[in-house]
Each structure stands twice: as structure tokens, then as C-alpha cells.
């Protein structure tokens, strides 16, 4: 199994372009099946979740080609409507194909996405919304069989919780429905605005993304388009947490500071000096971050749950006390026990984690999930001595060659096979 070997206490300095956002490119790639013809997607990162998504597109009958960071998807002919079970297991967010396949094919079939490292991952909000639009969905032996014999029709859909995936699935399905769909209680994440931009480039008429009410005029004949994916705000938060913890001066480009303003506020309160422009963030840190006011994760524009673990790792290497509250997922503290192996002082009580900064030391640790693995890398960069971070498949789902990016900033990190 491969692992990262990291020697800590190397100051980070230099500039990095942030790669395209995983949580934007996945729904955008699924949306390509709405338009017969060839879509061109730029700034598409090399991630295992993207590879899995491209395999699903091929499985549905699309011709897919990749040239560097540009992917072309020819959805002229979509012959199948079933997402293979193996790929569903590999990537639970493949559920995003439900709405798009229903809209294009009038039917869809996929296995129930299992839970994941973050705890149970229900999709009841997705299914309720699609049924409201006219889909008939039954589950048999863990497989969801969906069809819309009378087509999909626009209506008002209320989401009791601003689920990102349910919002996106409803937008995609509504593009194939007749009439107007209004999504009330929609998630407001920037990735949803990026999806709206792409859908409108296809010829759809979607408005309101970024607010909690999104409207979709359905049934337009959609045509292929070209799109450049937004920068990944969580990858940016990861790089900044690493520089904050290890000390140094870094400049990130290709990401909008506003998309991670709550993270920047925390890093500034912890002692980092920051300045930014339209798509640039510059950070200086002498390492040893201070404790900050309580961090409570919340739907956007609140503090992003995906940044919780990497910011926690940075603060665990610093001084002072910080209280975290994880309000989005049931079990998103699995990185805590691995950080403890490096000497971190973090006490868990239910959704609350109390972090007391300490001097961390190198250790052999294992990634528990995507962002939990990134947190171990952040901690190892600030710890005294050598660490080995294993189970890299978790990290490779959402970070494009993380070790190369950090090496560019001066980190001593190597991918090794053991
Ligand atoms: C998206 O997941 C992201 N994934 C997640 O990023 C992110 O953490 C999450 O949104 C929250 O921002 C992608 O975009 C591919 P949700 P999603 O539906 O859509 C509950 C990462 O690290 N819920 O907003 O699955 C759910 O259990 C990943 O990049 C229901 O109860 O998140 C969770 O507690 C991790 N029923 C909460 O809502 C539903 O039908 C938020 O889920 C759907 C969700």
C-alpha cells in the first residue's frame, strides 16, 4: 500500500494554482448527459472520484476523452440508464446521476448508495423531490428502479434541509421536466452556482443558485457547451491550514476568497496575516496558531464541514483551546484518534471536540476518509520528526497529487510504496 512519508517543521513558501473543485465537476459531468452532443469541461482535476464519474458516463453510452485538465463528453447517444453497482459503491455521490438520467432517458437505475466514513448517508430528500416531479421510484434488493412514465413536470419542491446533493439532483431532473420548478430551501454552496452556470450554457433557464430559492424552466432542448470549473475552496482551505500550521508565506490563485471566507476569518483570528484579491489568497504565518472562538459547521455560507478536519489539525499543532461542533455529519471526527497518535490533545463529546494546542510528533497514521486524511497531512507538516500517512486512496479521491503541490511549497513529502 502506498503512503506519504513527511518530515515536519519545514516552512512552506511559494505560490500554487488551486485545481478545479471536485464538488462542482461531479454534478457538471453528470449534467453533460442532458445535452446530445459534445461538452468540453476545462479545469477538471485528476481525482479518483472524477475517474469513477467518467467511467459511469462511458457505461451509460457516452464517448469520453481526457486531454490534460480538459475532458470532452459526447452524449449524442445515451443507451443505458443503469449506474453499475460497483461504481455506486466506489462513489456514493454517483447518486447525482439519478436526476440527469431520469431527465434524459425517462428512467434510471442505481444501487442504494451505502453509508460512508462520515456515517449514514440517506438520500430521502433526493427521492422525495424526484417523486414530487413525477418520478416513480421503487427499491428492490438495494436497487432503486426509477421511471417517469408520464414525464417529469415542474412544481414547487421544499427541501426541509439544504442538502447539496438533493438540490443538484432536483435541478438536473427539473431541466428535463415540463414547466417551472421552484426549489425552496435550496443549498447555497458556490458549487451549485457553478452548476447553474453550466446548465444555462446548455440552454437551460436556471436562476437563484446561491440563494435558498432556485427556479428551473424545464423542457428546453439542450445543446452541448464548454465550461471551466471553479477552483476548489476546500483544497484551498487545506493548503492554507498547512501553511498556517507549519509557518511560512504562500499565495494561492484560481480560487475565490469569498467562497471560504469563514475559514479565512478563523485563520486570521488564529494569528495568520491574510490579504486577497478576486481569485487570489496570500497568507503569512509564523506557525503555532492560537486558539479561536468556537467553530460550528453549518450549511453554506456557514463554516464548511469539509474544512473542519484540516483546520482542527492546524489548531491542534498550535497553542490555546478551540471548541468545534460538527453539525452536518454524524461521524466526522474519525481523524481525531489518528491525530492523537501524533500527540494531539482533542477531547470528544458527541458532536463537540475540544482541541488543546500541543507540540505534535511524527507517527505512523492511517487516513480514515478524504478530509480526515488531509488533516493528518496538515498535522504531519507541523509535527517534529517523520510521519507516514497511509490509506492514500481516501486522499486521492479529492486531491490532485497533493504531495506534488505541497512539495512545490517546500514540504518534505514523498509518496512511497510499502
Ligand atoms: C456534499 O455532499 C459534498 N459532496 C460533501 O463533500 C459535503 O460535505 C456536503 O455536501 C455538505 O456540504 C459532494 O458535493 C460530492 P448533503 P452531500 O446532502 O450532497 C443529510 C467532501 O469531503 N441528508 O448536503 O451528500 C446527510 O446525511 C464531501 O468533498 C439527509 O438526511 O451532502 C448529511 O447529514 C463529503 N437526506 C446532511 O444532510 C438526504 O437525502 C448534508 O448532506 C440527503 C442528505
Question: What does this entry show, briefly?
Answer:
This protein is an alpha+beta fold and 418 residues long.
Please give a structural write-up.
- The chain is α+β, with helices and mostly antiparallel strands and 418 residues long.
- It folds into 2 domains: 2-19 and 231-417, Enolpyruvate transferase domain (UDP-n-acetylglucosamine1-carboxyvinyl-transferase, Chain), CATH 3.65.10.10; 22-228, Enolpyruvate transferase domain (UDP-n-acetylglucosamine1-carboxyvinyl-transferase, Chain, Alpha-beta prism), CATH 3.65.10.10.
- 33% of the residues lie in helices and 26% in strands.
- It has 14 helices and 23 strands.
- Strands 21-22-1-23 form a 4-stranded mixed beta sheet, with helices on one face. Strands 2-14-16-15 form a 4-stranded mixed beta sheet. The chain has a 4-stranded mixed beta sheet with strand order 4-5-3-13, covered by helices on one side.
- Strand 9, helix 6 and strand 10 (180-184) form a beta-alpha-beta unit.
- Helix 1 runs parallel beside helix 2 (48-60) and helix 5 runs parallel beside helix 6 (164-175).
- The mean pLDDT is 96.
- Bound molecules: ligand EPZ.
- Ligand EPZ is lined by residues 22-23, 26, 93, 121-126, 161, 163-166, 187, 305-306, 328-329, 370-371, 398.
Amino acid at each position: 500500500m502506498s503512503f506519504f512519508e513527511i518530515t515536519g517543521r519545514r516552512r512552506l513558501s511559494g505560490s500554487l494554482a488551486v485545481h478545479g473543485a471536485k464538488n462542482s465537476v461531479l454534478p457538471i459531468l453528470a449534467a453533460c448527459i442532458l445535452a446530445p452532443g459534445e461538452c468540453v469541461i476545462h479545469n477538471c482535476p485528476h481525482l479518483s472520484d472524477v475517474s469513477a464519474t467518467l467511467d459511469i458516463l462511458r457505461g451509460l453510452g457516452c464517448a469520453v476523452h481526457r486531454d490534460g485538465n480538459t475532458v470532452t463528453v459526447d452524449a449524442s447517444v445515451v443507451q443505458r440508464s443503469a449506474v453499475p453497482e460497483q461504481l455506486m459503491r466506489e462513489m456514493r455521490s454517483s447518486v447525482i446521476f439519478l436526476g440527469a438520467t431520469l431527465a434524459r432517458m425517462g428512467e434510471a437505475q442505481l444501487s442504494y448508495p451505502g453509508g460512508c466514513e462520515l456515517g449514514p448517508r440517506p438520500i430521502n430528500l433526493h427521492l422525495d423531490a424526484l417523486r414530487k416531479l413525477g418520478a416513480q421510484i421503487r427499491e428492490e434488493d438495494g436497487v432503486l428502479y426509477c421511471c417517469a412514465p408520464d414525464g417529469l413536470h415542474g412544481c414547487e419542491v421544499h427541501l426541509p434541509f439544504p442538502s447539496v446533493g438533493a438540490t443538484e439532483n432536483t435541478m438536473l431532473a427539473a431541466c428535463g421536466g415540463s414547466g417551472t420548478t421552484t426549489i425552496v430551501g435550496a443549498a447555497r454552496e458556490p458549487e451549485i452556482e457553478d452548476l447553474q452556470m453550466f446548465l444555462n450554457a446548455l440552454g437551460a433557464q436556471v436562476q437563484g443558485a446561491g440563494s435558498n430559492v432556485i427556479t428551473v424552466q424545464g423542457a428546453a432542448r439542450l445543446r452541448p457547451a464548454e465550461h471551466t470549473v471553479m477552483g476548489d475552496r476546500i483544497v484551498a482551505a487545506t493548503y492554507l491550514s498547512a501553511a498556517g500550521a507549519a509557518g511560512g508565506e504562500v499565495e494561492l490563485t484560481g480560487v475565490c476568497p469569498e467562497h471560504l471566507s469563514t475559514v479565512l476569518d478563523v485563520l486570521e483570528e488564529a494569528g495568520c496575516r491574510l490579504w486577497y484579491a478576486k481569485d487570489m489568497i496570500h497568507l503569512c504565518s509564523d506557525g503555532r496558531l492560537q486558539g479561536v472562538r468556537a467553530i460550528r459547521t453549518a450549511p453554506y455560507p456557514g463554516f464548511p464541514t469539509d474544512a473542519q478536519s484540516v483546520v482542527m489539525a492546524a489548531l491542534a499543532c498550535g497553542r490555546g483551546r478551540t471548541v468545534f461542533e460538527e453539525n452536518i455529519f454524524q461521524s466526522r471526527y474519525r481523524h481525531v484518534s489518528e491525530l492523537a497518535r501524533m500527540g494531539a490533545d482533542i477531547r470528544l463529546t458527541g458532536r463537540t471536540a475540544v482541541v488543546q494546542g500541543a507540540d505534535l510528533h511524527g507517527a505512523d497514521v492511517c487516513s480514515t476518509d478524504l478530509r480526515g486524511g488531509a488533516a493528518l497531512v496538515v498535522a504531519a507538516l507541523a509535527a517534529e520528526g517523520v510521519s507516514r500517512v497511509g490509506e492514500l486512496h481516501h486522499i486521492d479521491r479529492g486531491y490532485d497529487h497533493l504531495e506534488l503541490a505541497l512539495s512545490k511549497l517546500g514540504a518534505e513529502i514523498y509518496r512511497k510504496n510499502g
